[in-house]
Amino acid sequence: MRITWLGHSAFRVEFDDRAILIDPFLTGNPSFTGDRAAVSAGVSHILLTHGHGDHVGDTIDLARETGAVVVSNADLVTFLAGKGVAKVEPMNTGGTIDLGGFTVTMVRADHSASLIDNGISIAVGNANGLIVKAPGQPVLYHLGDTDIFSDMALIAELHEPKIGLVPIGDRFTMGPKSAALAVRRYLNLDVVMPCHYASFPGLEANADAFAAALEGHPTRVLAPRPGETVEVN
């Protein structure tokens, strides 16, 4: 599995002959300096953890340009369909859908969700984490935006994720110490990649404190630069 961090909480994930985007916030993302066309090349699906502008990002334009299917909670994809997104797959917390070659499960996250439309805040369902499973690939868990919660242990028991994309930025999500505690106490991961940091003022500027809090733990911390691709087997 090849994972490219695009800055903030945006990722491109490739496995087998698939390429998917998660929370593709590119325009306005101060950490993203790459080529948008290259990032979206061959993408078949766009997965969204929740409805905030820094996660929905370029979804509408990318879906139109690529023909990708947008997958998220029913409220959010209904809103996006009304904005012209042609292909959507609605789901909700606890549900799993088969997308042909891989499945996605929505799990709990502790956060809010809304989008601004013509100056009005519109509720677009709950915030979620995403579990991505594909045959022969390690199970991927994008936690979305969240605080630590003890039911992460149940998520780990049910889905056995081995790669975690974990927010550490503080202010809007858990900070480095809480995120590291979540990894230590609740998640039995092989690899963890921090996200939702080093993008905006008020967020953690780097992953140093997170990595230090996991020193000596068997989970391997990978903190690529924005635009860098890592391969995890």
From TrEMBL:
SMART domains for this protein: Lactamase_B
Keywords per UniProt: Hydrolase
Database matches in InterPro entries: Metallo-B-lactamas, RibonucZ/Hydroxyglut_hydro, UPF0173, UPF0173_UPF0282_UlaG_hydrolase
Entries under SUPFAM superfamilies matching the protein: Metallo-hydrolase/oxidoreductase (SSF56281)
Domain Metallo-beta-lactamase, residue spans: 7-196
Keyword Hydrolase: yes
Organism superkingdom: Bacteria
Family: Belongs to the UPF0173 family.
Protein's UniProt name: UPF0173 metal-dependent hydrolase J3R73_002838
High-level lineage: Bacteria, Pseudomonadati, Pseudomonadota, Alphaproteobacteria, Hyphomicrobiales
